Fold these 2 entries.
Entry 1:
Amino acid sequence: MKRLWIFFLFPVALAQTAQEPRGLLPLLTHPVRLQALAQLEAARAQRSAQASPLALQAQGGYGLLGYECQSQALCDALPKTASSLTLSLALTPFPFGDTQDALRRAELTVRRAELGYARAVLALLAQAYQAQGRLEEALLGLRLAEAGLALAQEGLLAAQRRLEGGGASSREVREAEARLREAQEAKVKAEEGVFLARLSAQSLVLPDQPLPPLAPPEGGVPLRVREAELALEEARVLYESTFRALLPTLQAQVLLYPSEKDQLALGLTSRTLQPTLSYTYQDPGRTSAIPGARVSREVRLGLALTLSPGLLEGLRAAENQVKGAEEALRAARLQAQVEEEALRQALAQKERGLELAKKEVSDKAKALEETQARARLGLESPLKVREAEVALLQAELKRKQAENALLGAILDLYSFYGRVPFKALEAGGEQ
């Protein structure tokens, strides 16, 4: 279906989405957005920490020593305290094993926080447009109530004149008075409605600033599908980590002893392939079991293997979790396909409804012009002119309601895709 009306109704929609939406500036400092942004920034900071290529660690110790000696003189000659200091530097030239899992989890956390931020901002956008729409409808409703009051006053005057001329009964006058009281009450309610609409909109939109128009999104991957994809990736990371825990771990270490109190070490483990450099100072130093000789270097190889029924059950649980996530993703895609079609049909219905409302406004405007022309010729009474004015305002209110319904359908599509339509409201867009 061709939607040429979009270019008539929203001639600058695409340009506006790239510009600063001035009417929506309060959303930049809204607590809901700031909370979602803080969570996103925290996730990004955690990812940066996981991606650090090195880590430095310092560790010290102090102890008191006690001895059992054959003679007190020997005990007095031995040191009474022990101290140590270790400096370690772990390098990550590339992510592997456990470090790769941690980095992938951090990346998935960022992506999930991005989706949460988009969901929060889109909810605020919907509230803002709804609040502005209610305010515009309330203002039109007030105009309509004022026109209805003028019509009721004109009707009462006409009934009173007919009563004086013998063309109406006192019952018709009472009915006109009742319509006037109803019109006065309707005006009071309309004023109260405008006040409440302004109150609800003041924290979401700027007063007297039009909101930027919105064009329907072209398409994309639905938000629910992206969330299901993230869940599947998280399940796969868990499975790989659980499977790796069943494998034997090989450790290699080279140690150098420049003196009895100093130690240099270079280590490597198969779980991460992270080279670790360390220096250790200890006092008192090492003693050799062989008189006149000391160990100057050492090469160590180690192999660790953990066998536990719990690990096997954990692997089976992780495997089932992956299968469940795959089926959840499949279900999300099927559901999204149906939902997308329903949203597109709802959008088309709102488009047709707006076209009908605009046609009704055009018809009522022509009817008002014709009534005014006939009134100038003395062929219609002022009461008929008032009635035509009220009919036009009613049609304009219907058009505004149709426009707001269309905006709601467009925002539903943006929420469905999880896309923020304005760059200024994206994460970091205000910077």
Entry 2:
Amino acid sequence: MSEEQDPTLRLLRVTYGDRWFIRRTERLWIASTRDRDSEHAPTLIETDVEKFVAQLEDPPARVGQFLLSENGIHFTGKQPPGSTGPRPLA
């Protein structure tokens, strides 16, 4: 079934399209936030549409974020035990 003919996809886009860009594959439901500065996860991926809708309603927290600085790109968020803070990406 094409995306244009998928009534569930169309309904999700109408309902959540102001906050999420929603698409699907044969097995996955995928949403990307439209708000780069949101406090929640920027991308949702689920195989089950009911779990997907639950995450659209109440998205999980963002784990970290990339920061640009004069020294390059750094990642902040969950660090391995013993880590002392942001580190450059290789």
